[in-house]
Amino acid sequence: METMSKNIIVLGPPGAGKGTQAEKITENFGIPLIDIGEILRHHKDIEVDHKTVREYLKNGELLPDEVVMDLFEKRLRKPDTAQGFVLDDAPRDKVQAQELEEIIEIGLVLHINASKENIKERITGRRICKECGEIYHTKYNPPDQEGTCDKCGGKLIQRDDDTEEVLEERLEVYREKTKPLVEYYRKKGLLEEIDGNRPIEQVWKDVKKEVEKIE
Question: Which of 105, 112, 132, 165 could covalently link to 4 via disulfide, CB atoms 3.0 to 4.6 Å apart?
């Protein structure tokens, strides 16, 4: 097992703000953000059990563990992770967590939670630029011109997995598969609870304090 550095997992239901906080950790501590969802979207045309990764994501389903962990391990082995990394949205269940422990040592697990009402508002209002990937929100961060990216003029779209229907499926998957990880890591003494219902900067203050404890 490799020596622990700032190796951090950020857990939480979709829409709790874990992605935003993971990005802030990366920006402030100079360690790479590894988002398994983004890795899978980059490999969306790979076929698994007669379905593409794209179809799994569209339906809010989890891919087989061996597929996820293979892509994941390849990313963790890149040189930029030597001083640590942030894992967003992974591992997704206890099996993946145990496999991850065979690859690398984890120093901190942050559980960022939020109410279902806040989650629904955040997720269904999210829009992304089809051209440059810039992210907006219909309420909290709207573009100057509705449906058009301020940055490049591209068309703003709602991702397939940001609809209310798919959100319900994603929340159910989270409750069934991922939420048990909270207790798993709590028993290992690695877990810190963070209230994600608050404004971003208030949440960040608590996140930063916990990350600074790892040496």
Answer: 105
How far apart CA 161 and CA 167 sit, in angstroms, is 7
With CA atoms as reference, report the closest residue to 20 among 214, 211, 196, 212. Answer: 196
C-alpha separations of 200 from 11, 53, 159, 186 in Å: 16, 31, 22, 24
Cα distances (Å, whole numbers) of residue 110 to 37, 73, 181: 18, 21, 11
In CATH, what number does 6-124+163-212 get? 3.40.50.300
* Per-residue pLDDT reduced to its tens digit, 75-109: 888 899 888 999 987 787 888 899 888 888 899 99
Give the whole-angstrom CA distance, residue 69 versus residue 176.
Answer: 19
**Residue 212 CB neighbours (<10 A):** 11
User: For the whole model, what pTM was predicted?
Assistant: 0.78
**Phi, psi at residue 192, to the nearest 5°?**
-130, 130
Residue 144 banded pLDDT, cuts 50, 70, 90: very high
Residues linked to residue 192 through DSSP beta bridges, in sequence order: 110
